[in-house]
Amino acid sequence: MVAALSYLKSMIASISKSQAIVILLQEMVESDLRQIGSTPWVRAHFAMTDCTSSYWDSSSYGTITLLDRRLSVKRVSRLKYISEYLRDGLFVDLAIHHTQVFRLCNTHLDSMASNPPLRPLQMKGVAKWLHSDDVYAGILAGDMNANRPLDQTLPHENAFKDAYLELGGREDAKEGCIWGFQSQETIKKRFGPARLDKVLYCGEVTARSLERIEIGVTVDDECTKKKMREEAEIEWVTDHYGLMVEFKF
Fold this sequence. Notes:
The protein is α+β, with helices and mostly antiparallel strands. It contains eight helices and eleven strands. A hairpin with a 7-residue loop joins strand 4 (about 75-80) and strand 5.
């Protein structure tokens, strides 16, 4: 987490101070929350949706969102999914005027294929709240585990625009893939690269740019590296690339 936070700090420093920043994180553990919450630059510039794991259904990991302190937060809530992994959608409503909000959803959809498939049901549940009358614009982003053909059509079926595709990306292009590059060789060979993570949006908002980030970032601590090698783990801070998207509304 130290290396990941250091990387994020450098990325944020490169962004214009006039732009408000929101960071969506998935698969955080309790120790991550403590470390993030005690990091000076995070405390100075961001509010955290969660300081403990109290609102996670899963005892092992969950989602948190970091919000630029200049933003006016009206409400934070969670939508519990019908899920084999106790997953949910983390909503944040930002006040923009008296009658409507800018609604963000940080999500981690179920990982594997199930019978019947659960990801379509989960996205449909989120869509209901992002398309409601009190929402001026909405963003749905995170690990959507889009690893089956049915996942390619889910955004369109739920009236979302896909930032990657809207900006000219191709569905099956390797340069659009987020996962599978920083994984063990056996996993790479079995599954290959995939565009598991997506940034979707609806309403009065437009994606202006999208960039893959956190490419090749490894842990700094040598003791941690040694332990990871002994446990046959990879030294990257995450097996996913990150996505950085600029929006205009």
